[in-house]
Amino acid sequence: MSGFFAMGGYAGFVWPSYAISFLVLAGATWLSLAARSRLRKNVAALEADADNSAP
Description:
This protein has one domain (about 1-55). The chain is rod-shaped, with a radius of gyration of 23 Å. The protein has helices at about 1-5, 10-55. By secondary structure, the chain is mainly α. The protein is built from two helices and no strands. The chain starts with a helix and ends with a helix.
């Protein structure tokens, strides 16, 4: 098992690469969810405005 974590001597390159990849993917997910939430609020506000201005 320790051989797996040592990655054949390349652990210093492999594990930081995994960490950076995870952080980038987590950040992209967080930004996407934040944008989705913001857009849903904008759509709800536009629909409410359209309902209020209808004759």
